[in-house]
Amino acid sequence: MSGPAASWSPEEVLNDWSMNSGQACSGLRHQCQALPYLLLPGAEEEDGNMEGDSGFITVQKVYYPLLCILGIPANLFTFYVICFRKCGMSDTAIIYLSCLAIVDTFYLVWVILLDLTLTFWQLQPFWHSHPACGIMGFLQYGSLYSSSWIVVVFTIERYLVLSSTSAKQHFSQAKVTRLTCVSIILVSHLASVPMGWINVVTPKNFTIEGKNVTLPWCHYRGHIYSTVLVWVTTFLSGGIPIILVIIFNSLIGHHLTRVRKMFTKEERRVMRGGSTKGMVRRTIFLLGTVSVTFVVLSLPRFVTYCILRTKYNHDWFDRNDYRIPINLISDLANMLQNLNSTTNFLLYCMVSRRFRQELLHTLTCKSKARELGSFLTQTTMKVFSLVDHKTPPTRDPITVVLTNLKQTQ
C-alpha cells in the first residue's frame, strides 16, 4: 500500500525535459515523488550531477517490476489457499484476508505495474492521455483506501468480538462479514472519485533528436483544491488508519492480558485445547502480525510526506535532487510502503503452521490431509451415539459406564 507524498506544481520543474528534469504526474505519482531521469534520444547528462541519482533510479527500475512479478502471483495464490484449503481460520478471517489479497493485487496492478513500472521504463505511458489520466487516480486510490480500511475494520471487529458477547454473535456471521467487506470497497472507491480531477492533461513540447514534438502530459493540477485533497487523502489512507490500528491493537492486548490473569495456568491450557478458542487465538495472532506490519511499513511514508509538505513546501525546492537527504528518504519510504501489498503471503507462512501445511500440499499436488484425531472422534461418536429420542426419560436415570469393550465375531 502506498501513501500520498508531497506535491508540487510541475511547471517549475518540467521546464526542460531534454535536460532530464521530471515530476510525478499520474495517480499516486503526482505527489512529489521524483520521476526517473529519463534520457530522450539526443539528450545528454550534465557532468557530475546525476551519478548518484542514476544509481538509485536503477534500483527503482528493478524494484518495482520485481514487486509485480513476485507480489501478484503471491497474492492470488494466497487467495486460493485461504479460500479453498483448510488453514484453521475462522469464516470471518477467511473473508477479510481473502478480500485483502484481492485489493492488494489490484493495487499492485494499478499503482506498481501500470504507473510506477511504466514510468521508469517508458517515455510516454498510456495514462498521459485523457481520460486515462483521471481514471488511474480513481482506481489507485480506491484500491489504496480498500486495503488500508480492511485492515482497520478487521482489527476493530476482532476487538468487539473479544469484548462483547452480542458483538461476537453478530460479527461471527459470514454474511455480515461479506457485506462489511463489500461496503468497504464501495465506499473506498466512492471516496476516491474526487481524485479523478486532481490531475490535468495539457500539451507539452519535447525535444527529441533535435525536433520539437508536442505530446499530452498528465500532471498535478496546481490548485488549492488539489492541495487540500491530497492532505485529506493522506490522512484517510495513512494517518487515521495507522492511529486506529495502534489503538485497537493496544485494546486487544490489554483485554487478553486482563483475561489471562483471571484464569490459572491449567485453566488456560484447557481453554487453548478447544477448537474454537484455538481458532480465535490463531486469528488474533495473525491479525496482530498483519496490522503491526501495516503500521511499520506505512508510518515512514506518512512522516516523510508531512515533512515535505511543511518544511520543504517551496516552489524552488528540487524534489528530483537525491543529494538532498529528505528526497532519498522519502522515496525509500515509498518503496517500503509499496512492499506492504506483497508481504502478507510471507507473513502467513511465518506465523501460521496450517497455512504452511496447506501451501506444501498444494505445491506437491496432494489432497487435503485428513486429521486422524477428528476422524477417530467422529467414528466413535457414530458407534456409541445410539439414542432413542422417542423413549421418554425414566424417573430415575441410570448412568452406564463402558469399562470393557470385547470384539465379537
CATH class: Mainly Alpha
CATH architecture: Up-down Bundle
What's the domain count?
1
Could you give a short account of the major beta sheet?
Answer: 2 strands, antiparallel
Count of runs of 4 or more consecutive helical residues: 13
> What general outline do the C-alpha atoms trace?
globular
Distance between the termini: 67 Å
Instruction: Indicate the low-confidence ranges by residue numbers.
Output: 1-27, 29-50, 369-406
Percent of residues in beta strands: under 5%
Overall strand count = 2
Task: Describe the fold and architecture.
- By secondary structure, the chain is mainly alpha-helical.
- The chain has one domain: Rhodopsin 7-helix transmembrane proteins (Rhopdopsin 7-helix transmembrane proteins).
- 63% of the residues lie in helices and 5% in strands.
- It has a two-stranded antiparallel sheet with strand order 1-2.
- Strand 1 and strand 2 form a beta hairpin.
- Helix 9 packs antiparallel against helix 11.
- It is globular, with a radius of gyration of 28 Å.
- The N terminus is likely disordered.
